[in-house]
Design a protein that fits this description.
The protein is an alpha+beta fold. It has a single domain (6-299), classed as Roll (2,3-Dihydroxybiphenyl 1,2-Dioxygenase, domain 1). It has five helices and 16 strands. It has helices at 16-26, 89-98, 160-170, 222-234, 293-299, and strands spanning 6-13, 30-37, 40-49, 58-63, 76-84, 104-108, 111-117, 123-128, 149-156, 174-179, 182-186, 194-198, 211-219, 243-244, 248-254, 260-268. The strands form two sheets. An eight-stranded mixed β-sheet has the order 2-3-4-1-13-16-15-14. Strand 11 and strand 12 (194-198) form a beta hairpin. The longest helix has 13 residues, at 222-234. It is globular and about 50 Å long. The chain starts with 5 loop residues before the first strand and ends in an 11-residue tail after the last helix. Residues 5-129, 149-266 form the VOC domain.
Amino acid sequence: MQTVGIHHITAIVGDPQENVDFYAGVLGLRLVKKTVNFDDPETYHLYFGDDGGRPGTIMTFFPWINAYQGEIGDGQVGVTVFAIPQQSISYWEKRLTTLQIAYTKTTRFDEVVLQFSDVHGLQLELVERDVSQKNQWAGGVPAQYAIQGFAGAVLYSADPEETITTLTNTMGLAYVATEGDYTRYVASATLGNTIDVKMVTGERGTTGVGTVHHIAWRAATDAQHIAWQQHVTQQGHYVTDIKDRNYFNALYFREPGRILFEIATDEPGFAHDESIDTMGEGLMLPPQYEEKRQQLEQSLPRVMVTYNEV
């Protein structure tokens, strides 16, 4: 079996308004969905992505106010990499400088990369890519420069060779090249298709603010999702039951390098409880929490989307 690429990446952050200010206000992403953590409904689950909230563009967050700061390290997604259009890197250098966000410019696998951190310490990168699916959301960033979705991710594994075995034998990614401390693998999608594995191990990461919780891979349909569950089990991994996350079904397993993998369905998507035009405007609750709506609306902090046009 072969996944076509990344469905979403989920991270832990601090104050939700600071989170919105960075990913909408600075990066210009669309707030696609404002809901709650299904396992902790007193906490938001915020989703950001492209104009349509498509798989391969979605970065999601659990904002835990006053939570401990985590440490990025082995057993985690170390870096989340966003794709920007060709000929747009100079725009982003100017934008980051104007918004007083420090960045480093480097090269990996013959691509120019801008490296920087978000307000809570997550490590991010921007890289120019040609993609077939264009993001038309102009959230303070002109559409010709807008983030298209994920380019991919950099994995920090506690056992890089075992993680590579999972990527190739279980998830179906293909080897591309090795450069320095990194080995690159690709899937077939044009977004969220590139995974770099850091081949040198370091300190074990600790969960907390500023760290990625999990990376999710795409399954096209519910039927394919069931096949993935069987396939992952046959590959020797312990996999969870399938869980209904309202916007997709999900299953989880922790690969031998200690990184938490999810496989998520493309269906039904983010527009089944809101229209495409109004996604992200209201607090959307799964049916099991609808009776607590008044309580949750009073207890959850208000967040407001403001875009920086610079």
